[in-house]
Amino acid sequence: MVRTADREADIMAKLPRRAVLHGAAATAAAVAAATTAPAPAEAGTGSHHAGGREPTVKQPVTTNVPRGQADHFDPYYNVVRGQVPASYHPWVANRQDRVLLYTRTAGPRHAHLGPALPAGLNPPLTAAHVLQNAVIRWMGEVGVAVDWTEEVTRLPGIGSTYKAVVFGSTSRDTLWKHGTAVDPAAAVNTTTGAHLDAGRTALRQYVRAGGGFVGIHNAIGGTEYNWPYYEGLCGGTQYYDHGANQDGTIVTLARDSSTQGLPARWAFRDEWYNWLPFPTRVKFLLAVDESSLATRSATHPGHGRFHPISWCQYYDGGRSWVAALGHDSAAYVDGSGFPGQEFFKKHVVNGILSAMGDLPFCV
């Protein structure tokens, strides 16, 4: 049996070139026509379609996979994931209109992040911290407070009141507490109580309790290469490589809170990440028209007529929204004249709001 979300992803990839390249209306119509299925009479009754609505109250957990969601269980990542609002966990009732911005890098560091930040919550920022300043300012304009950090022990966990955690261009094993409790005299020192991967534990428990996750640019694929749970959180995909930083045309694929107000096609400049494996079980939001690119990667063949760059999904009880855009510092500067800057800002702000639950998510 072909799962609903997998069937939609397959259809998106196989759409006629004209449907994808001629904008959101043609793409949405083609996908809707091919994937329309009757809604279940009652959520959680065992119907093949388990989309339903996000529950608003906690329910007892009595089975590994809730009734009606078996078709959305991913055995590789051991989670329910995809376009499954009924899988959401409303387990924390006192979340605030506040997000945590996490920008720690354990490898390459994009210029838009500025110098590494000192430990602690909300350390001083400079003008060089372009992404951080932009997210703080943009979210403040819509009434959302932002805390920021690069200290791995500050990641939210069980019961956190943050509505979302935003990973901004993180890299490599960003969730590992490097250099803690190293004892050269022993292979393992059990006397320190050190929990070097506590960040992973915290993030996973936060998502499981209904937290929102947002990944911007290098946070998708360029982060936590060797942790399958994080790969699944990002859509079951990894960054493989990219071509030159160059102009291209973005295609808006779907109606969504995060694509509201975006034109069907718009100019932008980026590195245009290639994916391996290809993202699955997600709602695709934006793609790049590869025919608009002057050059491509010298290694990866690209994705041809369907090259997604932004998508969303429900994952293990939480919400996940990601966008690979945002390499250039100017993309984060209002009024910079960077091509498509105002649309990038709108997409990111509304994507964060949807992951928080302040706007409808991924429907």
Q: What would your notes on this structure say?
A:
The protein has 363 residues and is α/β, with parallel strands linked by helices. It contains 7 helices and 13 strands. Strands 1, 2, 3, 4, 5, 6, 8, 9, 11, 12 and 13 form an 11-stranded mixed sheet that branches. A two-stranded antiparallel ribbon has the order 7-10. Helix 1 (4-14) crosses helix 3 (24-35). The two termini are 23 Å apart. Residues 1-49 have low confidence and may be disordered.
List the SSEs and their pairings.
Layout (H helix, E strand, L loop, with lengths): L3 H11 L2 H5 L2 H12 L37 E2 L4 E4 L13 E7 L27 H11 L4 E5 L12 E7 L29 H11 L3 E5 L11 H6 L5 E3 L4 E7 L12 E6 L3 E2 L7 E7 L18 E8 L2 E6 L17 H16 L7
Parallel strand pairs: 3-4, 3-5, 5-6, 6-13
Antiparallel strand pairs: 1-2, 2-12, 7-10, 8-9, 8-11, 11-12, 12-13
Helix pairs in contact: 1-3
- CATH topology type of the domain at 96-178 and 193-356: Rossmann fold
The main sheet comes to: 11 strands, mixed
What average pLDDT do the residues reach? 88
The number of distinct helices, counting runs of at least 4 residues, comes to 7
What separation lies between the terminal Cα atoms? 23 Å
Structural class: alpha/beta
Q: Percent of residues in beta strands? A: 15-25%
Region (Disordered): 39-68
Organism: Catenuloplanes nepalensis
InterPro entries: Class_I_gatase-like (IPR029062), TAT_signal (IPR006311), ThuA-like (IPR029010)
Protein name: ThuA-like domain-containing protein
